[in-house]
Design a protein that fits this description.
The protein has helices at 40-44, 56-59, 62-69, 83-92, 164-170, 190-196, 201-208, 227-238; strands at 2-7, 20-23, 27-31, 48-50, 77-81, 106-107, 110-111, 113-117, 123-126, 129-135, 143-148, 153-156, 176-182, 216-220, 244-245, 251-253. With 254 residues, the chain is α/β, with parallel strands linked by helices.
């Protein structure tokens, strides 16, 4: 299994793209602006989208993906998400005001989009690949995910603040290879980070101290305006955990 990083930034500008990971050729984990770099042929091959939550930087590419690829597919795109996330998408995006409701068109019994609710700790198996919903602590109902192949697992926190429940689950994953964890803000923005339930470098170090499994730690969701400062602070506060900073175009193999 391969995981291609389409976007991993906390904002846009220049080469920055927001959160989207392509698993093999047919699964998206979040659908931020990174989706826009895929060719039409690549968009058509995507069968499943797993969403962490409803915020725009994680779903911005979804409406255009459905619209662009739907007519070229022979089955609907399946979007897996919490019931609350699905309700938000129905109310605020696929509502005929912001975007057409592709769960009804072109035909109600043959739509281009279907929603599949997922619950915390539920696992969806797609061949030999398994995606398990993990707890997250954000301002809206949210999830992280374990992405597992027969050989190894990757864990993505999604957007989250401190979260003991998450570590209790992660520390029970024996084949953990990669941990992708967010750090959105610099330490000087800690009040904003706390209010918006994102991590900052001091807090990241506190969270990583709860990890008892060996893993390659990769940092995502840095705000572009403070990217260089956050990188310096990550080294100062979390350097003992040897975190790398995830980059658009990275390819992870499981």
């Amino acid at each position: 299994m391969q995981v291609r990083v389409l976007g991993c930034s906390g904002g846009i500008g220049g080469h920055s793209r927001t959160t989207a990971f392509l698993i093999d050729h047919d699964i998206l984990l979040d659908a931020g602006t990174g989706v826009e770099d895929l060719s039409l042929e690549e968009l058509v091959r995507i069968d499943h989208v797993f969403l962490t939550h409803s915020h725009l930087d994680h779903i911005a590419g979804l409406p255009l993906l459905v619209d662009s690829a739907g007519a070229l597919r022979n089955r609907p795109l399946v979007v897996h998400a919490l019931p609350e996330t699905i309700a938000a998408l129905r109310a605020h995006v696929f509502n005929w005001v912001i975007w057409p409701d592709f769960t009804e068109i072109p035909l109600a019994d043959a739509p281009w989009l279907v929603f599949e609710p997922i619950a915390l700790n539920q696992t969806v198996a797609l061949g030999e690949r398994r995606l398990r919903a993990l707890p997250a602590n954000h301002t809206v109902p949210a999830l992280g995910y374990q992405v597992a192949s027969p050989r190894a697992s990757l864990v993505f926190t999604g957007d989250t603040g401190p979260n003991d429940a998450f570590w209790q689950v992660v520390n029970q994953i024996p084949d953990l290879r990669f941990l992708i964890i967010e750090t959105a803000f610099a330490n000087r923005e800690r009040e904003l980070a706390v209010a918006s339930r994102h991590l900052y470098p001091v807090q990241l170090a506190e969270e990583l101290a709860k990890l008892t499994r060996p893993a390659t730690v990769l940092i995502t969701h840095l705000k572009p305006s403070d990217r260089h400062l956050i990188a310096q602070e990550l080294q100062a506060w979390a350097g003992a955990y040897s975190p790398g900073i995830l980059a658009r175009g990275d390819l992870l193999t499981l």
